[in-house]
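Journal club side-thread
Mid-discussion, someone asked how the predicted structure for our own chain would compare to the paper's figures. Pasting it here so we can look after the session.
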Amino acid sequence: MVPERAGAAPHSGEPKMAACGLTHTGRRARNEDCYLIRADLGLVIVADGFSGAAGGDIAARRAVDEIAGCFGALEEQTLPHFEAHELADGFAVATMRFAIEHAHRRVRHHAQRTGPLGMTTAVGVLFMAGSRMIIGHAGSVRVYRLRAETLEELTKGERRPGPFARTLGSACGAVQPAICTDVWRPRDCYLLCTSGLHRVLADEQIRLTLATRGSVEESAAALVGRALHAGAADNMTAVLAQPRVRLEQNLAVASPDPRGA
């Protein structure tokens, strides 16, 4: 089956990142993965609907739409301030937490009202707030960062046990999204991927693929192609995002601090 390129939403502002996503059904009958890219907001969302639950594709799409709606509501009122105020980190983290918790409630409500019961989805979100990336996730979607030739999974220490639901829409109760922040650097590349990809490709295989990458488009295609070649059967999605560095940011990085002279 031909890989799908979808999920890039129309935008009106200057892109904050170069991003590209690619999704593939694998050997499944339908694709229950879903993703969205809003380069103007610096926002990427990836959802992995559970294939064992009826309506996993519906849960994934609903979660993506609800989370995107929460961040989209900030576009006119708050986002311009993220460029100038590092104190906005706290607000961005709070928005991330609210968006994922809100999506969980909406997916549960939709399942209870219309069925099918048991629809659930994992989700991973990347949001660029000034000099930081805010990363939120619940479930099996992973977020990696490639810096120089070093790959780090930013969600590795954030898969937490306990009484909370691990996926959006679960009837187990409230979801507790794991959230972290990362100070990005020029040429950093972030990968969000579903379990259909990271369960087939080891971290070192992912690192080697990204380290020899060209564009984000080429990287996404290379990852999905490598997973398919390895015999991946499940739906898989890979979304790559690279911050765009404006001229003044380049100068700030390149110029030494006069106080350190």
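Post-session note: The chain has one domain: 17-246.
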